[in-house]
């Protein structure tokens, strides 16, 4: 693991980005922002999963106005995603957006960009300059060619050009993203950009795909960059419910030992010795763990033969048998349970351990 790249610090609401601040996990709602109730419900689900910052699409002035009510109902910072219309950026900030994501080059010229920057200064709002391989200016494509793993100059040059549009107005509360759908192009672009600026970088692979393809592509690209010390915020882009993006993001950060949230699940891939429905059991346990905050190691194993031994480092685990199962702690059998009672008993004990740890944390705080 390389030392983290030094970047300047900006603030999106209460969340510090860059410097030695924790790498922030972002996601984006897929609701119609004008539907305030549904959008708030989805954001609260993201909050429960640990999301640090959320982004919403602002497609018109009604959506920009809805930000006021949404912002008042949620706890995490809210970023307005803007394309083409500078009026939407200004209106979003006037209604309480904590940050905006724009491509300054497509706002309609210097005068309109200046209006957006003036509003950002007035409201103390940072701007993410977001460029992807499909939004590069024609002159840069003609000069440098379409981005590839071996040639990302057009992508990087576009980002830096748009940053300069903001800097000319005396604005530097900026973070940058240079996304591509191709993994190797994304890696190459961020490496190149990180050598040419000290602004914080938001990592992501655009249009990554569904759960499996999107997780693999994003984890490869972002895992490599993070291991090289590149990146200050990230989004795992999936064609799934947004909460899945947050779950994958935290597992990626945990795997790299960068940041941990909640329990770690250890589960076996099953084999011919398995006599219980381990897939369903593991899925239910994993869903429950998303509601927990304690950094426990939790194991779900297919059989009692190897379960406690292979997972003896787990704080608590469950292993199936033929019509029965065992619950073990640190490799020692704690309780034997009938199969139909195994899941509820296990979840109840997980809840007990969570409450005990929370109580210990409160006691330590008082002392």
Features:
367 residues; alpha/beta; TIM Barrel; Sulfite Reductase Hemoprotein, domain 1; 2 domains; eight-stranded parallel sheet; five-stranded mixed sheet; 12 helices; disordered C terminus
The biggest beta sheet, please?
8 strands, parallel
The level 1 CATH classification of the largest domain is Alpha Beta
What is the H level of CATH, i.e. the homologous superfamily of the largest domain?
Dihydropteroate synthase-like
Mean pLDDT over the full residue set: 89
DSSP strand content: 15-25%
Distance between the termini: 36 Å
Helix proportion: 40-55%
Topology of helices and strands:
Elements: E1 10-12, E2 15-17, E3 24-28, H1 36-49, E4 53-57, H2 61-73, E5 78-81, H3 86-94, E6 99-102, H4 110-123, E7 127-132, H5 138-144, H6 153-167, E8 174-179, H7 183-194, E9 202-203, H8 211-227, E10 233-234, H9 242-255, E11 264-267, H10 278-289, E12 297-301, H11 307-310, E13 316-320, E14 324-329, E15 332-338, H12 339-366
Parallel strand pairs: 3-4, 3-10, 4-5, 5-6, 6-7, 7-8, 9-10, 11-12, 12-13
Antiparallel strand pairs: 1-2, 13-14, 14-15
Helix pairs in contact: 1-2, 1-9, 2-3, 3-4, 5-6, 6-7, 7-8, 8-9
What does this 3D model show about the protein?
The chain has 367 residues and is of the alpha/beta class. The chain has 2 domains: 10-255, Dihydropteroate synthase-like (TIM Barrel, Alpha-Beta Barrel); 264-366, Sulfite Reductase Hemoprotein, domain 1, CATH 3.30.413.10. 43% of the residues lie in helices and 18% in strands. It has 12 helices and 15 strands. The strands form 3 sheets. It has an 8-stranded parallel sheet with strand order 8-7-6-5-4-3-10-9. Strands 11-12-13-14-15 form a 5-stranded mixed sheet, covered by helices on one side. Helix 1 crosses helix 2 (61-73), helix 2 (61-73) runs parallel beside helix 3 and helix 3 packs parallel to helix 4 (110-123). The longest helix is centred in the C-terminal third of the chain and has 28 residues, at 339-366.
